[in-house]
Amino acid sequence: MSEPSGQLSDPRELLEGYLDHYREEILRKLDGFPSPGVSRVPSGWTPLALLKHLAYMERRWFVWDFAGERVDDPRGDRDEDGGLVATESFEEIRVVYLAQCERSRQVVAKARLSDVASRIGRFRPPMEPPTLGWIMFHVLEEYMRHAGHLDIARELAEAP
Questions:
Q1: Name one Pfam family in it (predicted).
Q2: Eight-state DSSP code of residue 129
Q3: Is residue 127 part of a domain?
């Protein structure tokens, strides 16, 4: 999917369009990735764990924090150092990721950008819950950052 049209001016259409663009961009960058479960960086994270992180990130921000739906383990399985554990195959995580992206779209479709997050997730008093527009922008920023991480990881993975 290419970037949304340069003629868009509606903030909602821009946010939704760019979120979908980067959701697909992440999968495109992982397509054919040599050994996505192998780390090539000192921190030990893997591209596979990154995809799982993004699925949990979508779930945490849109379903738990914004919609206020109770979820088991909103951050995912972590190791003793706090890193996300990804023991599933790429295809298994991809299925979970795509399902979570679709669930996030459903949550967003039912709300206005000015609606505020629930008090069920992380935003309990005295914290002020953010708006859906802020959450969408924050999630978009996270996608952009991680797409760059995958560029570097792919370069390292394909280096001789």
A1: MST
A2: P
A3: yes
- pLDDT tens for each residue of 39-72: 888 888 899 999 999 999 999 999 999 999 998 8
Q: Residue 143: what residue type?
A: Y
CATH of the domain at 132: 1.20.120.450
Nearest Cα to Cα of residue 59 among 49, 50, 69: 69
Query: Into how many domains does the chain fold?
Result: 1
CB burial of residue 43 (10 Å; 0-12, 13-18, 19+): exposed
- Alpha-carbon distance of 25 to 91, in angstroms, equals 16
Nearest by Cα to 86 from 140, 48, 42? 48
Q: Indicate whether this model's pTM tops 0.90.
A: yes
Kindly state the tokens that stand for 160: 């001789």
